[in-house]
Design brief:
The chain is mainly α. 76% of the residues lie in helices and 0% in strands. It contains 7 helices and no strands. It has helices at residues 19-22, 29-55, 57-66, 69-94, 98-128, 137-168, 178-203. Helix 2 runs antiparallel to helix 6 and helix 2 runs parallel beside helix 7 (178-203). The radius of gyration is 20 Å and the shape is elongated.
Protein backbone atom coordinates (compact mmCIF):
# COMPACT_ATOMS: atom_id res chain seq x y z
CA UNK A 1 0.00 0.00 0.00
CA UNK A 2 1.26 3.47 -0.85
CA UNK A 3 1.38 5.62 2.29
CA UNK A 4 2.63 8.79 0.63
CA UNK A 5 1.07 11.94 2.11
CA UNK A 6 -1.33 13.85 -0.09
CA UNK A 7 0.29 16.81 -1.82
CA UNK A 8 -1.03 20.33 -1.66
CA UNK A 9 -3.02 21.24 -4.80
CA UNK A 10 -1.23 23.48 -7.29
CA UNK A 11 -4.24 25.72 -7.64
CA UNK A 12 -4.28 25.51 -11.44
CA UNK A 13 -6.78 22.65 -11.76
CA UNK A 14 -10.41 22.31 -10.66
CA UNK A 15 -10.92 21.31 -7.03
CA UNK A 16 -12.59 18.10 -8.21
CA UNK A 17 -9.20 17.01 -9.64
CA UNK A 18 -7.38 17.19 -6.30
CA UNK A 19 -6.25 14.06 -4.49
CA UNK A 20 -8.73 14.80 -1.73
CA UNK A 21 -11.68 14.58 -4.15
CA UNK A 22 -10.44 12.31 -6.96
CA UNK A 23 -7.95 10.10 -5.13
CA UNK A 24 -4.27 9.74 -5.79
CA UNK A 25 -3.05 9.49 -9.39
CA UNK A 26 0.10 7.33 -9.79
CA UNK A 27 3.31 9.19 -10.59
CA UNK A 28 3.11 12.95 -10.92
CA UNK A 29 1.76 15.66 -13.22
CA UNK A 30 4.98 16.07 -15.30
CA UNK A 31 5.11 12.37 -16.21
CA UNK A 32 1.45 12.43 -17.25
CA UNK A 33 2.12 15.45 -19.46
CA UNK A 34 5.02 13.53 -20.98
CA UNK A 35 3.00 10.35 -21.47
CA UNK A 36 0.10 12.20 -23.10
CA UNK A 37 2.55 14.00 -25.38
CA UNK A 38 4.14 10.70 -26.40
CA UNK A 39 0.74 9.10 -26.97
CA UNK A 40 -0.19 12.02 -29.22
CA UNK A 41 3.03 11.59 -31.17
CA UNK A 42 2.50 7.87 -31.66
CA UNK A 43 -1.17 8.50 -32.45
CA UNK A 44 -0.08 10.68 -35.38
CA UNK A 45 2.18 7.86 -36.58
CA UNK A 46 -0.71 5.40 -36.41
CA UNK A 47 -2.97 7.74 -38.39
CA UNK A 48 -0.22 8.11 -40.99
CA UNK A 49 0.11 4.31 -41.12
CA UNK A 50 -3.56 3.72 -41.88
CA UNK A 51 -3.72 6.53 -44.44
CA UNK A 52 -0.65 5.15 -46.21
CA UNK A 53 -1.98 1.59 -46.04
CA UNK A 54 -5.28 2.69 -47.56
CA UNK A 55 -3.52 4.45 -50.45
CA UNK A 56 -0.77 1.87 -51.03
CA UNK A 57 -2.31 -1.53 -50.20
CA UNK A 58 0.18 -3.53 -52.28
CA UNK A 59 3.22 -2.04 -50.53
CA UNK A 60 1.68 -2.76 -47.13
CA UNK A 61 0.81 -6.30 -48.18
CA UNK A 62 4.37 -7.10 -49.26
CA UNK A 63 6.14 -5.08 -46.56
CA UNK A 64 5.55 -7.34 -43.52
CA UNK A 65 6.80 -10.30 -45.56
CA UNK A 66 10.13 -8.52 -46.09
CA UNK A 67 10.97 -7.58 -42.49
CA UNK A 68 12.38 -9.97 -39.91
CA UNK A 69 9.34 -11.29 -38.06
CA UNK A 70 11.65 -13.31 -35.79
CA UNK A 71 13.28 -10.07 -34.59
CA UNK A 72 9.86 -8.56 -33.95
CA UNK A 73 8.72 -11.57 -31.93
CA UNK A 74 11.99 -11.59 -29.98
CA UNK A 75 11.67 -7.92 -29.08
CA UNK A 76 8.04 -8.41 -28.09
CA UNK A 77 9.04 -11.13 -25.63
CA UNK A 78 11.90 -8.95 -24.33
CA UNK A 79 9.65 -5.97 -23.67
CA UNK A 80 6.93 -8.09 -22.07
CA UNK A 81 9.60 -9.51 -19.75
CA UNK A 82 10.84 -6.00 -18.99
CA UNK A 83 7.33 -4.91 -17.98
CA UNK A 84 7.13 -7.86 -15.60
CA UNK A 85 10.48 -6.93 -14.03
CA UNK A 86 9.43 -3.29 -13.70
CA UNK A 87 6.21 -4.33 -11.98
CA UNK A 88 8.23 -6.51 -9.58
CA UNK A 89 10.51 -3.55 -8.85
CA UNK A 90 7.45 -1.50 -7.89
CA UNK A 91 6.04 -4.28 -5.71
CA UNK A 92 9.29 -4.58 -3.80
CA UNK A 93 9.79 -0.86 -3.21
CA UNK A 94 6.27 -0.75 -1.77
CA UNK A 95 7.39 -3.51 0.58
CA UNK A 96 10.48 -1.41 1.39
CA UNK A 97 12.74 -4.10 -0.07
CA UNK A 98 15.21 -1.81 -1.86
CA UNK A 99 17.68 -4.54 -2.69
CA UNK A 100 15.17 -6.66 -4.59
CA UNK A 101 13.70 -3.56 -6.21
CA UNK A 102 17.15 -2.61 -7.51
CA UNK A 103 17.71 -6.14 -8.76
CA UNK A 104 14.53 -6.03 -10.82
CA UNK A 105 15.42 -2.57 -12.13
CA UNK A 106 18.72 -3.98 -13.39
CA UNK A 107 16.81 -6.79 -15.10
CA UNK A 108 14.53 -4.22 -16.72
CA UNK A 109 17.55 -2.21 -17.85
CA UNK A 110 19.13 -5.37 -19.29
CA UNK A 111 15.96 -6.08 -21.26
CA UNK A 112 16.03 -2.53 -22.60
CA UNK A 113 19.64 -2.94 -23.74
CA UNK A 114 18.86 -6.33 -25.30
CA UNK A 115 15.95 -4.77 -27.19
CA UNK A 116 18.25 -2.06 -28.54
CA UNK A 117 20.79 -4.68 -29.64
CA UNK A 118 18.19 -6.82 -31.42
CA UNK A 119 16.67 -3.77 -33.10
CA UNK A 120 20.11 -2.54 -34.22
CA UNK A 121 20.80 -5.97 -35.70
CA UNK A 122 17.45 -5.84 -37.46
CA UNK A 123 18.22 -2.43 -38.96
CA UNK A 124 21.60 -3.75 -40.13
CA UNK A 125 19.94 -6.82 -41.68
CA UNK A 126 17.45 -4.58 -43.47
CA UNK A 127 20.32 -2.54 -44.86
CA UNK A 128 21.99 -5.69 -46.20
CA UNK A 129 18.74 -6.57 -47.94
CA UNK A 130 18.67 -3.12 -49.53
CA UNK A 131 15.68 -1.84 -47.53
CA UNK A 132 15.61 1.86 -46.64
CA UNK A 133 13.09 4.65 -46.08
CA UNK A 134 12.95 5.09 -49.86
CA UNK A 135 12.25 1.44 -50.69
CA UNK A 136 8.46 1.79 -50.45
CA UNK A 137 5.74 3.62 -48.57
CA UNK A 138 5.64 0.72 -46.10
CA UNK A 139 9.33 1.06 -45.22
CA UNK A 140 8.99 4.82 -44.84
CA UNK A 141 6.37 4.27 -42.14
CA UNK A 142 8.26 1.26 -40.73
CA UNK A 143 11.46 3.23 -40.14
CA UNK A 144 9.72 6.29 -38.73
CA UNK A 145 7.74 4.22 -36.23
CA UNK A 146 10.41 1.73 -35.18
CA UNK A 147 13.29 4.21 -34.95
CA UNK A 148 11.15 6.61 -32.94
CA UNK A 149 10.28 3.76 -30.56
CA UNK A 150 13.98 2.78 -30.50
CA UNK A 151 14.86 6.26 -29.22
CA UNK A 152 12.18 6.10 -26.54
CA UNK A 153 13.52 2.79 -25.22
CA UNK A 154 17.04 4.24 -25.26
CA UNK A 155 16.38 7.27 -23.11
CA UNK A 156 14.01 5.34 -20.83
CA UNK A 157 16.85 2.86 -20.22
CA UNK A 158 19.08 5.82 -19.26
CA UNK A 159 16.33 6.96 -16.86
CA UNK A 160 16.44 3.53 -15.21
CA UNK A 161 20.13 4.05 -14.44
CA UNK A 162 19.31 7.40 -12.84
CA UNK A 163 16.53 5.82 -10.74
CA UNK A 164 18.90 3.04 -9.62
CA UNK A 165 21.41 5.71 -8.55
CA UNK A 166 18.68 7.54 -6.64
CA UNK A 167 17.49 4.28 -5.07
CA UNK A 168 20.98 3.57 -3.77
CA UNK A 169 21.07 7.05 -2.26
CA UNK A 170 17.91 6.23 -0.31
CA UNK A 171 15.59 8.49 -2.31
CA UNK A 172 12.84 5.87 -2.53
CA UNK A 173 11.06 3.90 0.16
CA UNK A 174 7.68 2.35 0.85
CA UNK A 175 6.40 5.81 1.84
CA UNK A 176 8.02 7.84 -0.93
CA UNK A 177 8.57 6.36 -4.38
CA UNK A 178 6.69 8.60 -6.82
CA UNK A 179 9.84 9.01 -8.96
CA UNK A 180 10.21 5.28 -9.46
CA UNK A 181 6.47 5.01 -10.04
CA UNK A 182 6.64 7.69 -12.74
CA UNK A 183 9.41 5.78 -14.52
CA UNK A 184 7.39 2.55 -14.32
CA UNK A 185 4.40 4.25 -15.93
CA UNK A 186 6.54 5.64 -18.74
CA UNK A 187 8.18 2.25 -19.33
CA UNK A 188 4.80 0.49 -19.53
CA UNK A 189 3.63 3.13 -22.01
CA UNK A 190 6.61 2.37 -24.25
CA UNK A 191 5.86 -1.36 -24.05
CA UNK A 192 2.22 -0.72 -24.90
CA UNK A 193 3.23 1.22 -28.02
CA UNK A 194 5.34 -1.72 -29.16
CA UNK A 195 2.42 -4.11 -28.63
CA UNK A 196 0.49 -1.93 -31.09
CA UNK A 197 3.39 -1.47 -33.52
CA UNK A 198 4.32 -5.16 -33.74
CA UNK A 199 1.15 -6.54 -35.39
CA UNK A 200 0.85 -3.54 -37.72
CA UNK A 201 4.36 -3.84 -39.15
CA UNK A 202 5.27 -7.51 -38.70
CA UNK A 203 2.03 -9.50 -38.84
CA UNK A 204 -0.86 -7.88 -40.74
CA UNK A 205 -0.73 -8.45 -44.48
Amino acid sequence: MNNEPQKEPLGIFPHSWTELRAGRVPGNIPIWVGILSELTEFGIFFVAYFIAKYNYPEAFSLGPQSVSTASGVCNTLILLSSSYFMAKAMINIRLDNRRKSERYLWLTFSCGCLYLMVKTGEFYWNDLQGFSTNTSEFFTIYYYMTFNHFLHVGWAACAILWVIFRLRKGAYSAKQHSGLEALAMYWHMIDLMWILIFPLLYVLR
